[in-house]
Write a structure and sequence with these properties.
The complex is a heterotrimer of chains A (154), B (334) and C (500). With 154 residues, chain A is an all-alpha fold. Chain A is 77% helix and 0% strand. The longest helix of chain A is centred in the N-terminal third of the chain and has 28 residues. Chain B is an alpha/beta fold and 334 residues long. In chain B, 41% of the residues lie in helices and 16% in strands. Chain B is built from 13 helices and eleven strands. Chain C is mainly α and 500 residues long. Chain C has one domain. Chain C has a two-stranded antiparallel sheet. In chain C, helix 5 packs antiparallel against helix 6. Chains in contact: A-B, A-C, B-C. At the B-C interface, helix 2, strand 7 and helix 7 of B face helix 3, helix 10, helix 17 and helix 22 of C.
Chain lengths: 154, 334, 500
């Protein structure tokens, strides 16, 4: 188990529970009881975990990823994160109806290395299903993206 | 008699219909609801969505979109600043939003008075009910109670909480308010269990339980068009010991006169607002709509936009000290 | 009563009612399968269509749809590691792990069979409980519900890895979940807690965006890293694999039944919510591990981790109908909407549903039974094709899954903030997987936090301290202690066995 991730998590929990407990001090009793009863032990547990990690200095386990060497794994993880953030950005900037087919197409072409025709057809299918189901049938509100609105297209 | 002018007019009549603008023909009207599907506001909106089309010239499609969040402040903000005033968007939201505006709740970015008000599709009356097997048969007896009467509620901001709170703090009724129940249905279960002794709420939601004789209404808030079953109950404001208490109670119950508010974005052209208002009047009188509403246990009555504006003026023009006092008791919530 | 039972069955078997049920099944099939569609939202959208139907037909449709959602939701969870529904997340832990090892067929077989058994037990409970339902629900007051939430939270211990270090991590996760549950306006003093003055957080953190981020995103990233299909290099199990899964369910028959009962019981309790039962069942399933190695196997593809939640998820539906029908108190959002359907059809939930309209109640029971049987049969027929999806190259599935994840999260509140929550949960989930923290306790804490707090306050406000001495409260307290201590007992027993 990677102790760096655990360290990051435990520190984050310490910060959150610590800050939360301090914020809660000002509240009336009924509002602060549970947050304090949970927050203080949480802080202590997280602190214990942090201490454990820092004091034991266990060797970082070699990632038993199986087929994928760690450097490649890291690169691909970052790539994956990048794509996810990219989808978020395009949803916000362009709106779901544009972002969805764009993302699917780009992912298939760039990451998947599929051919133009296949990518186009697949994208069309996905977009059709998405539009038919979520827009036409269910009328879910998908706001226009910021960029599109700014450009005056809505 | 000279027939010719008459004939001419007759011949031109169909032309006039053609010449009249049908702004809604072939369009889609959207009703934005500030809540998730399944609740009262949503049900009302969907009911109207089904019956409005035949009363709007051009017979557009009417759909509902849910925009929950922030107790419908988000939907109201959207209707205020983002929705286009082209007559194709309506919205409905939490009736207590005028109070939210009055008490400057964080995140409020609208001015209720600037919306193009269609009106309200229903009225509400808040009542306090207590279990039928309790020895208190009416409000006077309740006021003399020696033991605290336990009232269940969901939390501050809901009428299950605010109404009894004012009765307790301003009228001195011996109530103990226990809050945290997840829904008003849970509170009724607690009543059956004898865990709590009663609940406050809208008469429309309490009616089945009153009819079943599980609970008995004892006091109510002011309202238009009161349900005959509770018409004769004492009204909280009338028993207020001083003008300040009366003003606070009146402020709490004012939004209930616009119980199901429907608005269009600010600066909607007056002709379109007029069309929509007329459509609402017709739809709410429509026997098919009324039948459906009765089945769904929804109350349907139209309050015109002008009336709604009057109520808003009353609410939003309260003197600052009343508002300060009010905020001590009533917080904006559900 | 027997007569009403028969009448109910005949009513469902009529052509019109039956066809509506089939239609409902068709709709529910897709709703459960696709993460973007929530069972509750779709139920609400379907309500208008039932206006002109007879009660039996309408409920055949609504319930047909609703009963199926939990089953097909399991499919998405098992095959893709994405929760198809908020109520089918627990099955991902072991179900998806099995799929990654190429055992998709077996996992699906176990999931479907346990779902069927769970649904049957839940329906039977509904039918049998009719005479005792009112006294049963009335006995369980807020103190008992608080204790039940405590029992649920006690399962955090079971869901943690063994050993003190494992417990610490499990409780950190659980505590974090509880802490997250505190966000929002509190119902006692009206204070806006931890909302950072935003409107979005004023109503608290929604479960679905967190769930979807916590489980789906780490799996998606892992899929990108592996660069292969979900099943990896092994071929997914074919129909023989599925039969193996079916056999697994019967091999662990008692566990399946116990988990179904847990699901039904939790479903009956009003106010517990729909997401709790599966985690408690999962926790209970982990308790059946006999050695520490077996215990480690959970989360990596132990079939018991599939059939436990699978059964509980479906059985709780039958249970949840009980308070809805008998009291008009919905146990979950979908039940609340079903209740709306009740009113539309002129039926008043309450004592009459158990007396005058008993046959309608029984027709609902039969609908659940038949709908589940038909769905499971259908799924078995499609099993091969479904399992084969896991051999598709990952890069074809990833964009589709990711889009569905985003839509599923977004449609909770029609707010971009949900997407942010999903991504943050995704980051947290990713770190948790790498650091070896169990994610289940976090979900459990998030789901039970508010329930525990509210019922505690109600209990104290109403009964002062006397509620602690109520008989069921003490029973549940003992159960909670037992659940917390069980992992230590397991460890001690395993050590004894090793020594012997």
């Amino acid at each position: 188990m990677h102790s760096r991730s655990s360290l990051a998590l435990s520190l984050a929990v310490m910060v959150v529970s610590g800050a939360g407990t301090i914020a809660a001090l000002d509240w009336p009793l009924k509002a602060k009881l549970f947050p304090m009863v949970i927050g203080i032990p949480l802080f202590c547990l997280a602190a214990a975990e942090v201490a454990w990690i820092l004091l034991s200095k266990a060797p970082e386990e070699k990632a038993a990823e199986g087929e994928v060497p760690p450097l490649v794994a890291r690169r691909r993880s970052l790539l994956g994160v990048g794509w996810i953030l990219g989808l978020l950005a395009s949803v916000v900037l362009l709106g779901f109806p544009i972002a969805v087919p764009l993302f699917v197409f780009l992912y298939l072409k760039l990451q998947g290395r599929e051919g133009w025709i296949f990518s186009a057809v697949f994208t069309a299918a996905v977009w059709g299903a998405f539009y038919g189901l979520f827009d036409s049938l269910l009328h879910l509100p998908f706001p226009t993206g910021w960029l599109v609105a700014w450009l005056g297209f809505s | 008699m000279n027939w010719k002018p008459g004939l001419l007019v007759l011949a031109l009549l169909p032309l006039s219909a053609w010449a009249q603008p049908q702004p809604y023909a072939g369009k889609t009207v959207t009703i934005i609801v500030g809540y998730k599907p399944g609740g009262g506001y949503d049900a009302m909106a969907r009911l109207l969505a089904r019956h409005l089309p035949k009363h709007i010239p051009g017979k557009p499609t009417v759909i509902v979109q849910n925009m929950p969040g922030g107790n419908s402040i988000i939907a109201a903000n959207y209707l205020y600043s983002s929705a286009k005033p082209d007559g194709l968007t309506l919205g409905t939201f939490n009736r207590n939003l005028p109070i939210a505006q009055l008490t400057a709740v964080q995140g409020v970015k609208f001015d209720m008075r600037k919306f193009a008000w269609i009106g309200s599709a229903a009225n509400e009356t808040t009542v306090l009910t207590i279990r039928s097997d309790l020895p208190y048969k009416n409000f006077d007896e309740l006021r003399k109670a020696k033991q605290p009467v336990v009232i269940g509620s969901t939390g501050p901001g809901a009428n299950t909480y605010d109404f009894p709170l004012l009765l307790k703090d301003l009228l001195g009724v011996n109530l103990k308010i226990v809050s945290g129940y997840s829904s008003s249905a849970d509170i009724m279960l607690a009543v059956e269990r004898k865990e709590v002794d009663g609940r406050a709420g809208s008469i429309s939601s309490l009616r089945p339980f009153v009819e079943r004789k599980l609970v008995r209404p004892v006091v109510r808030a002011r309202s238009h068009d009161v349900d005959p079953a509770i018409k004769d109950l004492p009204v909280d404001e009338s028993i207020a010991p001083n003008p300040r208490a009366k003003a606070i109670m009146a402020l709490r119950s004012a939004p209930e006169l616009i119980a199901r508010p429907y608005v269009m974005p600010p600066n909607t052209p007056p002709e379109l607002l007029k069309v929509m208002r007329e459509a609402f009047v017709a739809a709410i009188k429509d026997p098919a709509a009324l039948a459906e509403a009765t089945k769904a246990k929804l109350d349907l009555e139209y309050t015109p936009g002008e009336e709604a504006m009057k109520v808003l003026d009353e609410v939003l023009n309260q003197p600052k000290d009343i508002v300060a006092e009010f905020s001590k008791y009533v917080k904006f919530g559900e | 009563m027997l007569e009403a039972l028969l009448q109910g069955l005949l009513a469902v078997l009529q052509v019109k009612a039956f066809s509506f049920m089939l239609l409902g099944i068709l709709v529910g099939f897709w709703v459960g399968l696709l993460p973007g569609l929530g069972g509750a939202t779709t139920l609400a959208l379907m309500l208008p269509f039932i206006y002109n139907m007879q009660p039996v037909e309408a409920f055949a449709f609504l319930l047909g749809m609703h009963s199926v959602v939990a089953t097909t939701g399991d499919i998405t969870s098992v095959l893709f590691g994405v929760p198809g529904e908020a109520t089918t997340a627990a099955i991902i832990l072991d179900g998806y792990s099995m799929t990654k090892k190429g055992q998709a067929g077996r996992a699906l077989g176990a999931a479907l069979t346990s779902s069927l058994i769970g649904a049957l037990i839940g329906a039977a409970a509904l039918a049998l409980a009719v005479p005792i339902v009112r006294p049963l629900v009335l006995t369980f007051g807020s103190p008992e519900l608080f204790m039940l939430a405590v029992v649920g939270l006690a399962f955090i211990a079971s869901l943690s890895a063994q050993g003190v270090r494992g417990m610490v991590r499990g409780f950190i996760a659980g505590g974090t979940g509880l802490y997250l549950a505190m966000v929002g306006q509190d119902p006692q003093a009206g204070v806006a807690r931890f909302t950072f003055d935003t409107l979005y957080l004023a109503q608290g953190i929604d479960l679905v965006p967190v769930l979807v981020g916590l489980f789906a995103i780490p799996e998606i990233i892992e899929l990108v890293v592996r660069g292969s299909s979900i099943a990896g290099t092994t071929k997914p199990g074919r129909i023989e694999g599925a039969l193996e899964g079916v056999k697994d369910v019967f091999r662990n028959g008692w566990l399946t039944i116990r988990c179904s009962l847990i699901g039904t019981f939790v479903g009956i309790m009003p106010g517990m919510g729909g997401a709790v039962a599966q985690w408690m069942a999962y926790g209970h399933a982990t308790q059946s591990a006999r050695t520490p190695e077996e215990r480690e196997g959970f989360g990596n593809g132990d079939v018991r981790g599939v059939l436990g939640p699978g059964a509980a998820c479906n059985s709780k539906e039958g249970g949840a109908l009980i308070p809805t029908i008998a009291f008009g108190v919905p146990g979950s959002t979908s039940m609340a909407i079903l209740l709306g359907g009740f009113f539309l059809l002129g039926l008043v939930p309450g004592p009459e549903m158990l007396t005058t309209h008993l046959s309608v109640t029984f027709s609902m029971v039969w609908t659940i039974v038949l709908a589940n049987v038909i769905t499971v049969a259908l799924c078995f027929l499609l099993l091969n094709r479904l399992a084969r999806l896991t051999t598709l190259p990952g890069h074809l599935l990833i964009p589709v899954i990711l889009v569905l994840v985003f839509i599923g999260s977004y449609t909770t509140n029609s707010s971009y903030a949900d997407l942010v929550v999903t991504l943050i949960s995704g980051a947290v989930g990713y770190l948790m997987v790498r650091a070896g923290y169990p994610r289940a306790p976090l979900v459990l804490g998030l789901v039970l936090g508010k329930i525990a707090e509210n019922y505690l306050y109600i209990s104290v406000a109403r009964y002062d301290a006397a509620w602690l001495l109520r008989p069921f409260v003490l029973v549940l307290l003992a159960v909670a202690l037992g659940v917390v201590l069980y992992p230590f007992f397991q460890l001690w027993r395993a050590r004894n066995r090793a020594r012997a």
